[in-house]
Amino acid sequence: MSVTPGAPAGVVGQVLKNCNRSDAQVAGRFSLCGLLLRLRNLYKWEKGLPPWHEEDSGVMLEWVSRREEYWETLLDAPLDPLQINGRELDPFEAEEINRLLAPKGLYYGAGLAGGMTPVFFLASQVDEELVEGLVVRTLRRELVSDILFLPGLRRGGQVHLRPTPLAYLLWDKIADPTPSLSVFCRFALQSQGLDRARVLARPDWETLGALVDGELKSVLWHELGEALVGRAAEDLLLRMAGEHPASELEFFTRGLKDMMADCGPKGRLARIISHRATACLGFYPAWLGGFPKLLFPEIGRAVTGFAEHGDWAAVEAARLAGWQRASDALGQLSAMADELSGAALASVARQALIAPLTNACARK
After folding, report:
1. Going by DSSP bridges, is the β-strand pair 158-161/134-142 parallel, antiparallel, or unpaired?
2. Are 354 and 332 in contact (CB under 8 A)?
3. pTM over 0.85
4. What percent of the chain has pLDDT over 70?
5. What is the mean pLDDT of the segment spanning 34-61?
6. Cα three-residue angle 18-251-237, rounded to 5 degrees
7. Which residues of 233-249 are buried (b: 16+ CB within 10 A; e: fewer)?
């Protein structure tokens, strides 16, 4: 990870160290391909390269090797408190840290991602607005980055939107030649008057920036939907993440919660439909992975049909199907968690809920 030139080295260096420690802990959870994709984007960001730049493979592999060697030295290292103005602060005390950093023109964020992975960020340019009771901050100039490249993160009543990571992630989707992905991205681009082959052959920041702005709305709509999912779902996910971190059970619970955020009455898809946001609809299936992709087969068919017939009603029907499935499954899992815990809960949930549900969706 890099430090942006001109940034106050003291604070940036401390946040950077904690990002490095978090990266070292989470790297082993990714497949080799998934890790290399994340490292490739991190390398580009560090070097100030655009998402479409492809580095010489020898240079890239040497950099990856050095980074992995560095991570080896950090595997057992705890997160450091931040030293600011003579005070020592827990790295998750974001509110107090920001009170001290405000005179420096800096904004700090901290949270937890999947598998209870710590996420930290620091920015020097932030737009702030109030949206439906939530404080939404868009980070325009980030000073450090980690390998997760999360485009959005909500913590309590605050939402953080990150257009820079989103640009790299969106470009990866557009450039991916996999037919099951490219068909959706091609449609999304066509809805904006863009030809995918032309975008790939002659990339530029103006075109990608406009697409990022559109998808940033979609990220916000997901976070707004997540805030409305309800306390019971939040508490269940916190319990699964705490008792079964980075496990099938946690990822299943997180996937259900994400589906509810997207499929709810005021979730991401409902807003895409109400705003007639065709490009966001086109890109949506390309973003799905893990359990949401397995448990929500209706949306891919609905978007494919929409590309041919423009039928918003079919998209709404798919949304409702996803909402019902996720709500029912979350209710069943919650009932199981009331009776069981530990390995017994993981085993019963897999046999009685996860396996049957994913198999049934695969046959749809």
Report:
1. parallel
2. no
3. yes
4. 98
5. 93
6. 80
7. beebbebbbeebeeeeb
